[in-house]
Amino acid sequence: MTEDIIRVEGLSTRFFTEQGQVNAVDDLDFRIERGEVFGIVGESGSGKSVTARSLMDLIESPGRITDGEIWFNDAELADSVAEGNEEAVDGDFVDLLSITEQQRTALRGTSFSMIFQDPESSFNPSLTVGEQLAEAVEVQQRASANPRSTKAKTQTADYSFGNYLLSTMLPSQRFVTDESRERAIELLELVGIPDPVERADEYPHEYSGGMLQRAMIAQALAGEPDVLVADEPTTALDVTIQAQILDLLDELQEENGMTILLITHNLGVVARMCDRVGVMYAGEIVERGTLEDVFDDHVHPYTEGLLGSIPDLASAGGRLQPIGGNVPSLLDHEMGDRCHFADRCPKAMDQCLEHPPEYAAAGSDDHTVRCVLAERSYDEQDSLPTGYFDETERPAGDKHEDPDRSAGEPPEERTQPQTTIDEVGGESR
Ligand SMILES: Nc1ncnc2c1ncn2[C@@H]1O[C@H](COP(=O)(O)OP(=O)(O)OP(=O)(O)O)[C@@H](O)[C@H]1O
Ligand code: NI
Fold it and tell me: Where is the stretch described as Disordered (predicted)?
């Protein structure tokens, strides 16, 4: 019997920038089953990280979750919240957006934990890796109000005076005990770091990228989370280490029954790791279902386009090839109420000038798609004239620089001659 651990309903996250309102995540629905790996895949700027950060309550100004519910299945939490806040509770589920910030923060590390794309950002450069892992362990111990944590705190008396002085300057050190240090070393060993006893005393800058990525996974696991949110956990790594880290996540997931939300550009990674997957485009999940639904029975031409560019896991980089055309502007006043993919879609029809609802599609009960092709087949008679969007709209890329993209990627990509999806794509698997 599977049960849902998370149900996201109508989630919208906006950024209120000087250029206008950015609809980074728009009316998202998905559910994650306990113990599964749910993947979110899509091009750069489609809203994957914002979705992950919304779940973790890590959206910062000028961003805000403007709508929706995030239901989390936790009977104990439901019990503790129910009194005085009945509308936040539905059976064993709690709407994380209807509880206090303090209640939400308490879940971080213990119920939810996140691996970020950039491991440097989750370590303090002036503390050793071991100290930081031990701190994460202690947070878990304090949070679970485990009797051990009282003992752990009293053990700080063992610190030398020098350490005591240091610990008042660096609050993270204050709680490091022998017990949590041992656990930190165990965690380093668990994620496959050689000589963990020695490595625990090293600083983050002494670690290679791959090792730091592992250490970050160890940090995320320190709190024994129910749900691990992994945002591009391997993108920055070379292929061998990429494969090792995926193996590691696989193992940990199987052993501990942990639930993983895995965010990636890479459909090869999805195929390898995930049970179900949501394909994101322009802040929406445009197709969602089991692996079979998405790989073999997909309906959305965007999914088709992504599949056409499955990178070989063994090849360098492992990023998706770009689909012809521009990544859309997510600025509210530029988005229009049409299918957001219509301007890049080889099968765009008159009907696509209306924003499609989510249709049920053939395959599993979970298979849904935001595309009229779920209801009808493509008819050339109804197709939009070539160049329709060039005449009616300026290309999105000219209007809105996506902060994620503007940094590293060469500008040529945006102005490449437009290839159709069929040219980039081809057969799925
Ligand atoms: N701090 C911010 N201020 C304004 N807009 C933002 C901010 N963060 C994200 N966005 C907007 O949200 C969109 C979605 O960003 P997000 O980081 O979720 O994309 P992504 O799918 O994770 O892309 P990538 O694969 O490159 O990581 C961006 O294109 C950007 O327009
Ligand atoms: Ni991202």
Answer: 380-429
Identify the three-state secondary structure at position 90.
strand
Give me the percent of the chain exceeding a pLDDT of 90. Answer: 53
* Atom number in ligand 1 closest to CA 50: 18
Distances, alpha carbon 400 to alpha carbons 59, 218, 404, in Å: 21, 38, 12
Q: How far apart are CA 233 and CA 100, in angstroms?
A: 30
Backbone Cα Rg of the chain = 23
Residue of 50, 280, 281 best suited for mutating to test ligand 1, as the one with most atoms within 8 Å of CB = 50
What's the complex ipTM?
0.99
From 41, 49, 402, the mutation candidate for ligand 1 (largest count of ligand atoms within 8 A of CB) is 49
**Up-side HSE of residue 194: CA atoms within 13 Å toward CB?**
2
Q: Which residue has a Cα nearest atom 10 of ligand 1?
A: 24
- pLDDT for the residue 221: 87
| Torsion 109-70-271-268 (CA) sign | negative
Q: What are phi and psi of 193, to 5 degrees?
A: -90, 120
Q: Please, are residues 404 and 45 in contact by the beta-carbon 8 Å criterion?
A: yes
Structure tokens at 63: 């961003």
User: 327 with 43: CB under 8 angstroms?
Assistant: yes
* The two structure tokens encoding residue 241: 């280490």
pTM of the model: 0.82
Distance in Å, CA 110 to ligand 2 centroid: 23
**Residue 361 CB neighbour total at 10 angstroms:** 22
As a whole number of angstroms, the distance between CA 243 and CA 239 comes to 6
Give the integer Cα–Cα distance in Å for 24 and 22: 6
Is residue 45 within 8 A of residue 405, CB to CB? The reply is yes
Pairing of strands 284-290, 276-281: antiparallel
Helices 147-154 and 129-143 cross at an angle (nearest 10°) of: 130
Place of tokens 């639930």: 259
Tens of pLDDT, residues 382-394: 988 877 887 666 5
4 bridge partner residues: 33
